[in-house]
Structures
1.
Amino acid sequence: MIRNCKFCGNQFHNFGKSKFCCLTCRILGQCDLDASGCLLWSGATRGGKYGVITVDGKARDAHRVAWAEFIGRVPLGMYVCHSCDVPRCCNPNHLFVGTPQDNTDDALRKGRHGMTGKKHSLDTRRVLADRLRANPAMNNPPEKRKQQSEMMKARWRDDPQWKYRGA
Ligand SMILES: [Zn+2]
Ligand SMILES: [Zn+2]
């Protein structure tokens, strides 16, 4: 079936129920530009804050997908942070890539980090670590875990399209 993209108007072959011809149109077509230039995601959200978009059958953070779509791949383990401090915003000009530490620093500076508790004592941390070790998911032998992480890395390296890792 041939449809007109709801955002750009181009005709496209539609095999599913999508109203948009491509991911770019899916993102832009579901955002509203506000007075401060933020592109506010109008679709589903996570906790009413971060936009959620389904790509390849997986729910992803809309702002991370926007970064990947308009700027480039999000480096493994990195965060896409908001300079405008609006979680729903998908304007690539308002986004920057930072380390998890940057993200925490940024959040702390802006006073919206949930974790304001004191650091756990060493004893408590040991107990927590033991609890983690007791988790069945952690019980894969080290070789297996290594193998899994190598597989992930190879996939990342070999497939430039596979850019939503961790989004
Ligand atoms: Zn389109
Ligand atoms: Zn913004």
Note: Residues 160-167 have pLDDT under 50 and may be disordered.
2.
Amino acid sequence: MEKFLKHGGVPTSEQKELADLNGNQKIDRFDWVALQKLLEGKIQQKDLPLLLGDVNGDKTVNTLDATLAEKMLAGSGEWNEVQKLQADTNANKRIDKHNINLIMNVAAEIITQPELPLEPGDFDDNDQIKSDDVIIVMKYLDPVNKPTSKEILYGDMNLNGKFDQPDLDQINKMLTKYTIEDPCMVPPTN
Ligand SMILES: [Ca+2]
Ligand SMILES: [Ca+2]
Ligand SMILES: [Ca+2]
Ligand SMILES: [Ca+2]
């Protein structure tokens, strides 16, 4: 499982089921993050499938989960590994403002839960941040092009509700992200 996640290739349906730790029918970056936690013994088989965005574990993603993720971000309260994983809706192994924003957007039905993890910056959703993504953001810097609410989620890096130069600068910085030697940042291939 680890091998094919790392090196790509087309998984069989059985492999896919085994490796799809968040049960969203695809092998994504989050599955890789969760697999590491499983191998480290920090989460158990019984915790699977993990429902991204569901911080309180009641099987729905709503504003209550966003409130809990805010607390987590503020460093208040005690959280277990499952809760931390479920709050990390962009699968970057950190809790940040995008996690809260993504949960709010699932609650508002702008995106659906299985669309998580969604990585801001990865506009074309191919688990890599490349020049293709930069080109899309550049397009929306021209006010003639109106983004949808969902597109804003992908490209509004500074969370001010619009596309602007800081968003482009941030995505440009992320172009080098996948070159670092962190296995989590080697995106698995679907
Ligand atoms: Ca998955
Ligand atoms: Ca919940
Ligand atoms: Ca991309
Ligand atoms: Ca912005």
Note: The CA atoms of residues 56 and 65 lie 6 Å apart.
